[in-house]
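Data availability (excerpt). The following record was deposited with the supplementary files.
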Amino acid sequence: MSTTIQCLVNPPSPNSDRLVTGGKNLADAFVGAAIGGIDIMALMEDPNMELPEGLDESLSSRNPFNPLSPFIDKQSAFMGQVPSQFFSPADGLAAIEQVIAALRGLDGEHAVPNPDLREGAIYDLEQYAGLLRSAQQQGATFTFYMEQ
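Predicted structure:
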C-alpha cells in the first residue's frame, strides 16, 4: 500500500476532478526529502540498500517542500477523519510555484535525487495548481492531505 498526497476542495466543484492525479510521486518525493534526500523508490526496490552515512542535516532547512508543508494535513486521513483546516487557493498556488522552482534547482536535485520521481512530483503539483485555480475562481478553499 502506498501513500499519496491528495487535494480536497471545499465546497467541491462539479467541474473539477478531485483525482486529477494520483499524488503518489508527490508523496514519495515529499517523504524522501523529509528524511534527508533518500531515494525512496530505490529504497523500496532494494530494502537492503545502504543508506548514506551522515545524512545532510542542512537539507531540512533547504527542503524544497517546506513552503507546501503547512498546507498538508499529515494525520486526519490516516485516522479516518476528514481534514478540518482549509486554506486560500492563492496561498496554495504561491507555495506550489515555490516548490516547483526549488525542485527544478540544485536543492531539488539533492532532496529528490531520482529525476523521474522529481518530474513526477512536479507533474502532480502542476495538476493540483490547475485544481486550485478553479477553486480560486469559485471562491472555494482547499487542503492537501496524506492518504494511504
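Summary of structural features: The chain has a mean pLDDT of 83.
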